[in-house]
Structure formats: structure tokens, C-alpha cells
Amino acid sequence: MMGIIKQFGSVIANDQVDFRAKAGEIHALLGENGAGKSTMMCMLSGVYRPTHGEIHIHGEKVRIRSPKDAMRLGIGMVFQNFRLVQTLTAAENIVLGESSSFWRGPRWMARKSEEIEAISKHFGLPFPVDRPIWQLSVGEQQRVEIVKTLYRGADFIILDEPTSVLTPGEAEQLFETLNRMKQEGKTVIITTHKLKEVMFISDRISVMRKGKMIATMAKSETNERDLAQLMVGQESVHNNTIRREKPQGSDMLVVKGLNVYGDHGRKVLDGLHFQVKAGEIVGVAGVSGNGQKELAEVLTGLRQWKDGEIRFDGKLLQNGSVRGAIGQGIAHVPENRMKSGLAGSLGAVDNLLFKTYRAPERSRFGLLRTGSNRSWSQKLIELFDVKTPGIDAPVQFLSGGNQQKLLLAREIDLEPKLMVAVHPTQGLDVGATAGVHTLLEDLRKKGRSVLLISEDLDEVMQLSDRILVMYGGRIVGDIPREEATREYLGMLMAGSEKEDAG
């Protein structure tokens, strides 16, 4: 891949990137979230088309306009979020879309199942071929995806964050399979953040940062520390030039021994223990998929926990109750504002009412107070400087920054004791990002607590009083603001031990 540029509107996701992979090697593509590595692989697999640049396979220039083109060239990709039909069997998913004659014959599916079983056994990827996908574990579903690429003749296997959903045992099994593929001359490309895995499984390593290719080297030429520096950058480690007093308030949130299980029955939070003081911003740093999403859901009532307890403002938090969390004073800025934060087809008034429509000032005898609600909404829009064509205009037509400010307006108007903000500036420009940061700082000054969950290290270091680092569903670091460096955080986020990092 030579001189690859990929633009999404005004955003440049890949900027003049060169990438080369050899036959019979495992090549790790390393970088933080948003570094551009998945976008690169989506172009190689035909999901996206490059804005500029060339792709060569076996020395010949090719045009990859669709996943079908990629598969014809022997390229298959296993995505982090699997592309499987839950109600179909594993075998049916693998043959789905395969061209065949109109009359397949009475034993066509049985023969295909036998072929699939033979491939899965050869590469050490066992799964029940005749069982529906929804009955398989996450690890088994991933094996189905890998076998699907092998069944279709792929010589280039791309795996996007392959171990993010696997147990340690499943990860070890996967590595054995990848080595077997390498021995048979296949090219394996892994996009990942995890330094230990990179040093364990890869032959060569390429590092991306902020849409650019920073370096490519053999595994023997580097180590975890150097990779962490390349991945997160060596620029100034203290963007937090403003020194502020340490919060003196009492504990607002206390989490003890919290165990939480994910949608597929796997433990996603393991014995979590931490606290957040009143008037404190606590940042949560970590690579996506290490339990941050589930932590936010538990605190805001969207997910139940199995063991442990959560005390909020001195009282036990009700398990799995959104209304209970709102009633106790917990606000939430979700990761995806248009999926679970705002209703895009509704106007500003309706979106602002979502959490307060039962309040006496918002409704009476089950009927909304239309006039006063519109006046209240207009005041909030002006106060938070939300640019909108009108309070009835569907919010899906607002810019990302204005959508986020509208969401924050609703949550902050509740006068929360704790704000759980998940990636609050994701996709926002510099001005909108600064506005969101100011709102979070204002909450802190008023003695409120903020739990800031973000994959942007600069943001976490700039805003937080303390930084918790999550890895594998556990807190592996609790670092004061003044001691945080990009290198240290990067090492912890990638699963390196504290003594290795320090």
C-alpha cells in the first residue's frame, strides 16, 4: 500500500501511508484508537476505497472496490464486531453468498459442512458447524469468521483487534492457529494495541499514530518500551500546565469488589475497587474493550452487576435501575450520542425533556406544559450556545458539536452530583472540544464529581485529578495527575506490568 490517503469529509484518517507485508509472516499493525490502522485494513479488504494511493498484490497494481474484489485477490478480514447472522448455523454463515447452481442437490449442505469441518480441524479452530451462531461463545464465533476467510481461499488474513473479546486461553489457541497459517505461507496482519501480544506473536511491527505511519521494524529490533513511545508519541507529557488544588471533598462514589458479566457471559469487570471524591475529575484510560463501557453502564443503571457494592453519596446504589441512578443524581453522556443519547428525528425540546418530563414544572396530570417547556428549552439552548435552526428542528441535522452541547445541557441542567462522561469530545473539532472541557471543569469547580472515560490520553491528562488505567476488566494503575506521562499510561494500557513501565 503506497501513498494511501483516506478522507472522510474534512477529516484525514490516513495521510500518505505506506505499508508492506510479506508472504509467510505475521505483521502487527500497532497504534492507539483513532490512529488509522483499521481504516487502512478496511481499504485493503474493500470496505472503503482510498481517496488517493495505490495497492499492489504480488507486485501487480490492483483496484479493490468491494469486499468481493478483495476476496477474489485472496484477502479476507475478520472484524472486531463479527459479521455473522445470529439465526443461521455456523456452516450456513460460511457458505452465505457463495455462487452455486440453481439445483444444489440433496446433500449439498452436508458436503459443505464436511469441508468446513476439515478446514477447522486442520487449523485448530474447532466449533459446532450445525449450531446457530447465537448459541456459540465469542471465541467460537471468531473461529467461524476465520474459517470463513480460509474456506473462501484467503492468502491474506487480516484480524482487527482479535484478542479483545477472547479469554487468555482462547488467545493462546488463536496464536497457535496464526503460526500454522504462517507456516503454510499465508500473510497474517493483526491490528492491535497490546504490546505483550505484539512481542509474542509478530515477526514485524508497523506503528501508526494520528493517521501516519511512524515506523516499521522486525520484532528483534525493538521492545515494549520503545513501541509504547512510538505509539503514544514523545511530545510533552504534561499538557496539564494549570496546577490546581487537590480535591478535599468526601468520597462521592465508592466502588468495592465489583464483578460484572458481559452480554456473552464473560466477566468484563473483575473485582473493581475505586472511589471518586466530590469536586474531583477522575479519568479512566484504557484501550476499547477493557471494561470501560460496562463500567459506565453499571453506574448509570443500564447494566446489572453480579457481586460487590456501589455507594453513591453515602447510600447504596440501586442495581440496574436507570431511574434510580437519575434520581440519586447521576448524569450520563454516552459513548454514541445519536444511538443512546439523543433521538435524531425529534427536536431540541423533546430531547431536553427525556429525563425530566415527570417533574411538576415540566408536566401536570400527565400532560406536558408545552409553553413553559419551550421557554425553558430556549433558555438552555442560549445558555449552552447550541446552534440550531430552531427548537423544533430534528437534532440529527445539527453538527456533532452542537448535538453534544445539547446533550450536556440536558444532563448538566439536572444539577448532577456525578457526571459519567464517555468519550465526550469524540468526533468534535477543536472549538467544540474546548467548550465541552470548560463545561466539565465548571462542574468540578461547583464541587460535583466527574468520571471521564476517554481513549484520548491528552484529554485525560489535561482534565483529570487522578487517572485510573483499565486493562482486562481491572484497574492496573491509579495515578495522580502530576505523575502521569504518556509513556507510562501507554505501557499500562497495553498490559505491561507497572514495574516494567516505571
Outline the structure in words.
Residues 1-235, 253-497 form the ABC transporter domain. By secondary structure, this protein is α/β, with parallel strands linked by helices. The protein folds into two domains: 2-232, P-loop containing nucleotide triphosphate hydrolases (Rossmann fold, 3-Layer(aba) Sandwich); 251-501, 3-Layer(aba) Sandwich (Rossmann fold), CATH 3.40.50.300. Helix content is 34%, strand content 24%. The strands form five sheets. A six-stranded mixed β-sheet has the order 6-7-8-3-9-10, with helices on both faces. The protein has a six-stranded mixed β-sheet with strand order 16-19-20-13-21-22, with helices on both faces. A four-stranded antiparallel β-sheet has the order 2-1-4-5, with helices on one face. Helix 14 (400-413) runs parallel beside helix 15 (430-445).
Dominant shape: globular
CATH fold name of the largest domain, please?
Rossmann fold
Helix content: 25-40%
Residue windows where pLDDT falls under 50 for at least 5 positions: 235-243, 498-502
- Mean pLDDT, to the nearest integer, reads 88
Our Rg estimate from Cα atoms comes to 25 Å
CATH superfamily of the largest domain: P-loop containing nucleotide triphosphate hydrolases
Total number of distinct structural domains: 2
Distance between the termini: 37 Å
CATH architecture of the largest domain: 3-Layer(aba) Sandwich
**Largest sheet, spatial ordering of strands:** 6-7-8-3-9-10
Give the class from helix and strand content and strand pairing.
alpha/beta
Most strands sheet: 6 strands, mixed
- Please report which band the strand proportion falls in: under 5%, 5-15%, 15-25%, 25-35%, 35-45% or over 45%: 15-25%
> How many individual β-strands?
22
Total helical elements: 18
InterPro entries: AAA+_ATPase, ABC_carbohydrate_import_ATPase, ABC_transporter-like_ATP-bd, ABC_transporter-like_CS, P-loop_NTPase
Protein name: ATP-binding cassette domain-containing protein
Domain ABC transporter: 1-235, 253-497
Keywords: ATP-binding, Nucleotide-binding, Repeat, Transport
